[in-house]
Structures
1.
Amino acid sequence: MQDCSKLLALPALPSTLQQLACVCCYALEALPNSLSSTAVSELHCYSCALESLPQLPLSLVELEVGCCGCLLQLPALPEGLKRLCTDNCAALAEVSSS
């Protein structure tokens, strides 16, 4: 998804979803809790109003978050995560340990 400037939230995600990118969704405040039960291996969020992310799927290997100035914390990271990139998330202060 790109340039969905009025989108506040997403509906439940299909379990077969493998990649999710939210770019320039300036009003997007939350990702659905169903994210944890998907097959998503790559998650990219840029320029969104997210304050936190829900529990991440175990299949996630790449997480990129950038220019999300409201993002305060990240959930526990899956053991199989190979790439984590946070850029210009000034409020990010915590990665949950559980």
Note: The chain has a mean pLDDT of 94.
2.
Amino acid sequence: MKKLITKKTKGVLPIENEHLVGKILVLDAKYLSTKYKFAEHQLWKATGGFGCDPNLQGRAIFCTALADGEEYRWDRDKFIGMISEETAKNYISEKDN
């Protein structure tokens, strides 16, 4: 099984007072079912929702999965951090190896 991304993984940045639209977010692996517990399924691109704005009370973040293009809604607190697009490409290409 491929390594999962954790808060301690090189390149993972904390989500603090960031506006998240367009950012690559790392979902905590504990929210994935067993068959999806791979790093590439932890990566989601934020597309909208009140949870993307740190100044609003909302928690919902609408995202697109980088692994398969699935669109989904997650709460802001389900993410362990964010990574650059360049780092995300490394994880997406791993699944083909």
Note: The beta strands are 24-27, 43-48, 60-65, 71-75, 79-83.
3.
Amino acid sequence: MGGNQQHTVVTNSVPIASQLALLQGGPVHLLGGRVRGLTQATVGGETVEALGRLHCDVVFLGTNGLTPTHGLSRYCRAMTSPSGPRAVTVKRGFSASS
């Protein structure tokens, strides 16, 4: 993350938290919740609740699409899986915390 600045990182990604804990000079926080097998990301009410207690200066969100009309979007097939809506809710939580 460059320079001598210390950054606090908050993520719901297990692999990102693991890598940054090794590389980053500042604290790394992994949000709680159910871990999705495919993405290794925490999702669900516990994750969203934790986000509600945070204020982030900068947020990086992953998305499958972006349009001026609909904004961020996620692949529709994922919405039919039990964890699809949970992942979208977490992204909304990150966005609201910034």
Note: The CA atoms of residues 65 and 73 lie 5 Å apart.
4.
Amino acid sequence: MSIEKQEQSEIGAAYLRDRSLSAAARGVLATLLSLPRYEVNSIEGLTRLLPNRRGAISTALSELEKGGYLKREMEKGADGRFKWYYRISAEPVFRGQI
């Protein structure tokens, strides 16, 4: 998993008030938005940063995807192996793109 953020000069906090997101999903998104690009490359990496377990983080990521804050894309690498890429945004710009 590799995470790519939408470039923004200032991160809005509208997602923190989005009542469709759980507190866990808001926390995961806030954490991802606060990190330098590509610093976390796996769910396991997030478990080292957050108090949540792998299952809870996976659920939060699915919630963010459903809400349009995250888009998962799979690409085939030069070595023939597939890799997931996660694109995230502080705004629900991916809503309806699943």
Note: The chain has three helices and three strands.
